[in-house]
Amino acid sequence: MEDQTQQLEPDGPELMELLAEALRAGPASPPWRRAVELIGVAGDQRAQYQRLCRVREDLESGRQWRSVRAGPGFTRRVMENLEQAPPRGGWPVASLVAWVSLAILLGLGLLLAVMFRGQSAQNDALADLERLYFLTPLAGGAFDGAGLAGWKPVGAAIGASGLSGDSADGAWRGGALVYPTALAADRPVALEALLNISRPAEELIFQLFVSDQADFDAQRATTPHELVWMIQGRSARLVLPDGTSRQAPEAIGGGELRVRLVLQGTAVVASVNGRRVYGGVNMLDGHRPRTLGIRFLQKGQLKSDALSVSAVRILRP
Fold this sequence. Notes:
Layout: H1 2-6, H2 13-25, H3 30-39, H4 45-61, H5 74-84, H6 93-131, E1 136-142, E2 152-155, E3 158-159, E4 162-163, E5 172-178, E6 189-197, E7 204-211, E8 226-232, E9 235-239, E10 245-247, E11 255-264, E12 267-272, E13 275-281, E14 291-299, E15 307-316
Antiparallel strand pairs: 1-15, 2-5, 3-4, 5-14, 6-11, 6-15, 7-8, 7-14, 8-9, 9-10, 11-12, 12-13
Helix pairs in contact: 2-3, 2-4
């Protein structure tokens, strides 16, 4: 009989017959003991009876009497384990976003600090430049139209009031006087001219220029990369090497005018009659020597003197 019990199918009809026989025979009978042993019921006879009845009901309804069901607290324990389990395969999204945001804020802070430091250094350089007194003449002097001693003429012949001759096609032409010795960029220098304006004319332009590429154009006596402080008509304007310009806020009247460029390194201050019009970066190469000079640009023939140059000087502190 023990061999037959071991051969019973857990969910087969033989088990149904064994349960029916055990329930008819009652506790402590051989069928009862075989059913309890097969199913694995513990406890007293009342618990065994309830278990045998439940298994029989499950078999009659087609349910698996050995199915596993979650006990009390199962879901809570699973969620707790999930929260305590270490992350797999990478950073949590929230942590990753926080670290990326922190990196961006640190980068922006560093960029602002560098920009502020650069601007602060530039402001300090301009303040130092403006505090200098340029009293030592390096070159130049009075200008009466015969040129400046030792300065090199470039382009059309230049006089105190403009260019000599006339252009047949009415195009702009230029003439310059250039100081022949290029100056180091890291030493402070001032280039200034004294003008007398009698009749402002748009067809005549006077310029102070500083260039780091002394390759002069034959027609206009200009260079490819230069800083220009110019007077045209009633306006004064600084033109940077990239082509952008800064114009004086006030119109120029008649009479005597002192125009000046002060440079050192990458800084420049442009002024008219001692009043600063522009202070900032000059956009010239801070390592290349610089060529200084004056220039007239003229279109057509002037009927009368619009302005005249009385003196040109290069000064050191």
